Amino acid sequence: MTCKWTRVALCLVPAACSLVLSGCARPVSANTRFYMLQTLRQAPPATREGKAVLAIPRFTIDAAYAGRGLVYRLDEHRYESDAYNEFLIAPAVMATEKTRDWLAGSGLFAQVLSSGSGADPTHRIEANITALYGDFRDKAAPKAVIEMRFFLLRTETGIDPEIVFAKSYRAACDTRTADPEGLVAGFDQCLRTILTELEKDLADVV
Questions:
Q1: Buried b / exposed e across 19-46, counting CB within 10 Å, b at 16+?
Q2: Which class for 112: exposed (0-12), middle (13-18), buried (19 or more C-beta within 10 A)?
Q3: Quick one: fold of 49-202?
Q4: What pTM was computed for the model?
């Protein structure tokens, strides 16, 4: 009897391990569609040649928008996350990368670094994404909405970090179509608007 139950237990162990491992994986439906932001700076670099070295660590994002699923605002207090239409990578990561590429092409800085760089920056930008959703309260006029809060800190060696610029930006852009593709295109337009304004503001302080 003991041998019989031992054999049964040995058979169940791999199955149990399989269930545990599969439970740790993020479930993705075969019908899920994935999207990426394509925000690009198309203007020529600034005529000036900046001397500051800028570091841009990964942005933070409010918990309501931190997931990959597209978020829709349906009425005053009701929001919904779309499990079948998602960003391919986390939205905070994409926004950080797009901002880094944008400012690298602006001519405002000698170098724009990622958080993993070993170089010593003279400045650092920190940002928090406070809103990232599709506003579908008016079904006849859907909008993409992004709100971001930026801080520019002076971080030169030998001095304590000092905030030299802080500002919140909000962009609400009409979507071409009332579907996920139109919403993501609207997000691109919103981010272009915000980064264009940010670049103009930074030109006055660096």
A1: eeeeeeeeeeeeeeeebebebebeeeee
A2: buried
A3: Rossmann fold (3.40.50)
A4: 0.83
Helix, strand, or coil (residue 69): strand
What is the pLDDT, as a whole number, of residue 119? Answer: 77
* Distant-in-sequence, close-in-space partners of 61: CB < 8 Å, separation ≥ 6: 91, 92, 95, 128, 129, 132
Helix, strand or coil for residue 114? strand
Q: What are phi and psi of 128, to 5 degrees?
A: -130, 130
Give the residue with greater pLDDT, 2 vs 200.
Answer: 200
Question: Taking the alpha carbons of 126, 130, 134, 140 in that order, is the dihedral positive or negative?
Answer: negative
pLDDT of residue 159: 78
- Stretch 127-156: mean pLDDT, rounded? 96
Backbone angles phi, psi at 102, to 5 degrees: -60, -50
Beta-carbon-side half-sphere exposure of residue 16 (alpha carbons within 13 Å): 6
Residues 6+ apart with CB under 8 A from 19: none
pLDDT of residue 106: 93
Reported as a pLDDT band with limits 50, 70 and 90, residue 29 is low
What is the sign of the dihedral through the CA atoms of 31, 180, 104 and 54? negative
- Using the predicted structure, report yes or no on whether residue 22 has a pLDDT greater than 60: no
